[in-house]
UniProtKB/TrEMBL annotation:
Keyword terms: Membrane, Transmembrane, Transmembrane helix
Membrane spanning residue stretches: 20-42, 273-300
Lineage, uppermost ranks: unclassified sequences, metagenomes, ecological metagenomes
InterPro entries (UniProt xref): PorA
Organism: freshwater metagenome
Protein name from the UniProt record: Unannotated protein
Length: 320
């Protein structure tokens, strides 16, 4: 009597069970590896500022600007446009280079654009800087910025990933140094939980216009989505005076309503991606993977331990 395959289940059901077991083992192993990568490796990869950013931010409000013929402040509705672009040719794996241009214009009801040389322009400027792709902090070394680029410090245009309820150094371009951005409260923007940080500068000496010294105050509130560090809203109340105390600017600005909704939508998309890669995949992989491995091993072992099927030829020869 043949003993080939004794102790193995060669029935159709056993073969199917064995293949299912092997599939479970393979899938379980894949999920465990994916879960470990999502837990250990993925955060350092996905929690980084992209190198292909090109965003335009719109703000509006009101400002009083000095009329040099009368020395009085004349109030008008205003708008501001800020364009931030990354420079992929200069950026590195760890550092992203930025070119940021902005303007504040008197709103005459026409198309909202920056008009160089216009009498309606209140302020304008171009800023070139670099930041760490994870922390958002300014970087001045190890990157090929233009020789005339102003060295920056602190946070410039976003908060770090996984922002905390604490005080951060925040770059003030008018002063040319950092000021404290203090955590103030938890709030909500379009259903998204945000941290609100406040910045206060009180009558500091500064250049209030080209080659004109004076004093400068500002009060800002910045709404930050903490997972991504994205700024979803910002308000500013700013004043400037000449050295003799004459007021030259009294400005109030905030993100437009449409801008707030757009910023919230972008943040929601980025939050979903981060949650998928850093939370959902590790959770599914490290819980579901071991379960599939156990199921697969049980199915394979059951086939190996099942009694051998008796073939008709062997039964016919029994007793010879």
């Amino acid at each position: 009597m043949s003993v080939l395959g004794e102790g193995m289940d060669f029935s159709g059901e056993g073969i199917v069970r064995s293949w299912i077991g092997r599939i479970c083992i393979g899938l379980g192993g894949f999920l465990v590896v994916a879960g470990l990568l999502g837990l250990v490796w993925a955060p350092g990869v996905v929690e980084r500022t992209p190198l292909d950013v090109n965003t335009t931010t719109y703000l509006d409000g009101e400002a009083g600007k000095i009329d040099v013929s009368t020395g009085e402040l004349v109030r008008n509705p205003i708008y501001a446009i800020s364009v931030s672009k990354t420079d992929s040719e200069v950026s590195t794996d760890d550092t992203v280079a930025w070119v940021s241009s902005s303007c504040v214009m008197i709103d005459r009801g026409g198309e909202r654009v920056c008009e160089d040389g216009s009498a309606d322009m209140i302020t304008a400027g171009v800023d070139v800087f670099a930041t760490d792709r994870h922390t958002g902090l300014a970087v001045n070394e190890g990157i090929d910025l233009p020789a005339d680029a102003t060295p920056h410090e602190g946070l410039v245009n976003k908060w770090p990933f996984d922002a905390q309820q604490e005080t951060y150094p925040y770059w003030d371009g008018t002063l040319g140094r950092t000021v404290d951005a203090e955590f103030d409260r938890v709030d909500e923007v379009d259903g998204i939980e945000v941290y609100v940080y406040s910045v206060t500068v009180t009558r500091n000496a500064a250049e209030v216009a080209a080659d004109t010294n004076g004093f400068y105050s500002t009060s800002k509130e910045i709404w930050v989505e903490p997972m991504t560090g994205a700024i979803l809203n910002q308000t500013e109340n700013q004043q400037r005076w000449l050295e003799n105390g004459t007021p030259v600017l009294d400005l109030q600005l905030a993100f437009t309503d449409d801008q707030v909704l757009e910023s919230a939508a972008d943040a929601r998309d980025n939050m979903s991606l981060l949650t998928l890669v850093t939370s959902t995949i590790p959770l599914v992989g490290l819980i579901g993977g071991p379960i599939l491995l156990v199921v697969g091993l049980v199915l394979v072992r059951r086939r190996e331990q099942a009694p051998a099927a008796h073939h008709p030829r062997e039964m016919a020869g029994a007793g010879r």
